[in-house]
Amino acid sequence: MEKENPQVALTEDEFMSLVSQAQNQDPDAMLKLLEFFEPEMLWHTRFIRMPQEDALQHMRLALIELFQDTKRPFPVKDEGQA
After folding, report:
1. C-alpha–C-alpha distance, residues 56 and 22, integer Å
2. What is the mean pLDDT of the chain?
């Protein structure tokens, strides 16, 4: 039987904090982000015509490149906004 991956639950603030840390080359933040997206990536591998592990590695690499791209800033919520 397959072992279940529990979904990592993050608030929007936690997520944005992890993205910011990942952009600053924090490996732990990057791992948490990859864990967050893992169930979604596994689901998508069903529709990609290549071995599942190859598809997962490609998606992981794309996420790492996206989160480490400091030229593509993610919106940061103002402290004053509710």
Report:
1. 19
2. 83
